[in-house]
Structure to design on (329 residues):
C-alpha cells in the first residue's frame, strides 16, 4: 500500500515538474515582478502595478490576463483576519486514515470539506495522511466542534492536534 | 481584538470571499448599498484590520514551485536555545513561507516551498537542519489542497 502511494506520487511529481519546466520558460522577469506584487496586493490599478514592474499599464494588464489564462494566477482571494472575526483558536489537526478501507480518502475529505469551521484541508504524503485546520471562537467552542464534527468524520485511525500560539511568519504565496 | 460587525458588513465580507476582485459598485449592488456607502464600509473594514488585503493566489507548481511541504519541528534543548534566535533564523529563509509557533507534538509548524524534491532536500539539509536548536523534524509533502476557504464569516 505504501509503495503504491509512493510510486503514484513520483509519477505525479514528475508530470508536475515537466509541466513546470514548460511554464518556467514562459515566465520572464517582468512576469515574476508582476506576480510578486500581485500576491502581496492585488488591489493596485494597472498603472500602479505597471509602475512597480517597470512597464506601462497596458502591458501590465495584458500580462496579468495571460498569467490568468495560463493558470499561473489560479484566482484571487480576500485575506480576512480570523482574530478580527472573533476566532481566537486555530488548531491544525494531523489525521491518520484507515487505508485498508478503499474509499477512506474520498469519504473523509468530502465530509471534512463540508464542516464550515474547517477552513483548510490538505492531503499529505508522509507520516500523516491529511491535515485539517479548525477555527473556533474559544476553547469551549473548539471542544464542541471537535466532539460533534471532527470525531464523527469517517475512517479515522488517529488525530494529533497542534494548537496555534502565534504566527511568526506568514508570507503570501511563493518566494519569486 | 474582535471587531463589531453588523449583518451588512458580514454580507460584504462573504461577497468578497466569493469574488475578491469585486468593485465597490458590484459589492454595493449585491448587498443593497450605494457605491459610496459600500466603498466606505469596505474602507472601514480595511482600517479595522478585518480585511488584511486582496491577493492573487498563484498555482505554486506553475509559478515554478512544484513541491510544498509541511514540517513539524521540535527544538532539541528547550531552555538553552532562545526561541527568538530560532524564529529569527528560520524566518530569514525565503523558501520557508509559513512559521507557526504551536503547542503539541511539535514546537513549530513550517511550510516550505521548493522547485522540486532535490531542491527541497537541499533546503532541508543545508538551511533547516542547521538552524540553532533544531531537534526532531518531520516532513509531510502536500499532495493536494482540497479546501482553502478562509474563516467563516
Amino acid at each position: 500500500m505504501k509503495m503504491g502511494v509512493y510510486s503514484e506520487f513520483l509519477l505525479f511529481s514528475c508530470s508536475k515538474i515537466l509541466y513546470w519546466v514548460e511554464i518556467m520558460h514562459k515566465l520572464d522577469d517582468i512576469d515574476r515582478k508582476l506576480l510578486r506584487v500581485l500576491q502581496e496586493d492585488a488591489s493596485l490599478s494597472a498603472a500602479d502595478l505597471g509602475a512597480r514592474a517597470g512597464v506601462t499599464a497596458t502591458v501590465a494588464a495584458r500580462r496579468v490576463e495571460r498569467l490568468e489564462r495560463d493558470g499561473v494566477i489560479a484566482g484571487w482571494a480576500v485575506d480576512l483576519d480570523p482574530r478580527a472575526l472573533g476566532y481566537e483558536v486555530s488548531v491544525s489537526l494531523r489525521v491518520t486514515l484507515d487505508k485498508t478501507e478503499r474509499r477512506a480518502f474520498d469519504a473523509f475529505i468530502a465530509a471534512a470539506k463540508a464542516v464550515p469551521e474547517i477552513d483548510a484541508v490538505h492531503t499529505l504524503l508522509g507520516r500523516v495522511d491529511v491535515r485539517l485546520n479548525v477555527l473556533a471562537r474559544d476553547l469551549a467552542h473548539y471542544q464542541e466542534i471537535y466532539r460533534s464534527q471532527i470525531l464523527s468524520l469517517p475512517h479515522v485511525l488517529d488525530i494529533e492536534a497542534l494548537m496555534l500560539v502565534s504566527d511568526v511568519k506568514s508570507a503570501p504565496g511563493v518566494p519569486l | 481584538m474582535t471587531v463589531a460587525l453588523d449583518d451588512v458588513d458580514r454580507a460584504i465580507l462573504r461577497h468578497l470571499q466569493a469574488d475578491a476582485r469585486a468593485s465597490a459598485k458590484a459589492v454595493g449592488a449585491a448587498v443593497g448599498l450605494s457605491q459610496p456607502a459600500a466603498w466606505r464600509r469596505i474602507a472601514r473594514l480595511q482600517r479595522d484590520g478585518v480585511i488584511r488585503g486582496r491577493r492573487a493566489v498563484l498555482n505554486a507548481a506553475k509559478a515554478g514551485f512544484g513541491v510544498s511541504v509541511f514540517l513539524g519541528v521540535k527544538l532539541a534543548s528547550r531552555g538553552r536555545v532562545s526561541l527568538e534566535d530560532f524564529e529569527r533564523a528560520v524566518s530569514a529563509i525565503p523558501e520557508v513561507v509559513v512559521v507557526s509557533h504551536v503547542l503539541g507534538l511539535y514546537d513549530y509548524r513550517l511550510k516550505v516551498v521548493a522547485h522540486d524534491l532535490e531542491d527541497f532536500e537541499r533546503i532541508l539539509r543545508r538551511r533547516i537542519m542547521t538552524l540553532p536548536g533544531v531537534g526532531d523534524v518531520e516532513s509531510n509533502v502536500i499532495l493536494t489542497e482540497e479546501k482553502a476557504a478562509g474563516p467563516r464569516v
Summary: Strands of chain B lie at 51-58, 67-75, 96-103, 108-114, 134-148.
